[in-house]
């Protein structure tokens, strides 16, 4: 199977949007892990006076996680899937949250410009065509000293990590995707993780992109060795 990219991937997410929240809701720890990654950004003052970018917000789960960590921040949430955003905007949000339909490559055309004090990206980087270009863009959008937080399925590098991920996908994720009528998207989900960077490799990719103080933190439970938080900071220039 060839991985989905760009417009084809956005269309697959559009189709899956109606059932997406229900499917991820049965994933143990899904929302708690997003909140954990958002808290790990350690945003000061509950986000008061801060401007945050939620890149790849989907139906708003990552936006909600950011709000728990920074309830007083201004949050700009962006996604390339119109269907996912349609679900997101139906939920109750405070006045400081706005949603924008745009791909990563077309943020400026959609009026999304920096500087941001932090960028949060959940389940994004294994789905973009050019992760290095996306990291360069994120860095350019951050204010000096701004923080990046990435919540991602990036395997730890051990054979057991790949085996657990594949077993969970074959036993739960792929059958659920078929029942929902979105088999292609969920096959992509499985393969995109297997073919993406390991956690150490993605950390090194962050460093090559110019981020300092890069840290990799694991998730608890069955996702240990499968999902990680990646943290970094833009330097003063």
UniProtKB/TrEMBL annotation:
One BP annotation, GO: methylation
GO molecular function: methyltransferase activity
Heme listed as a keyword: no
Keyword set, alphabetical order: Methyltransferase, Transferase
Stored CDD domains: AdoMet_MTases (cd02440)
Origin superkingdom: Bacteria
The protein, known as: Methyltransferase
Source organism of the structure: Streptomyces camponoticapitis
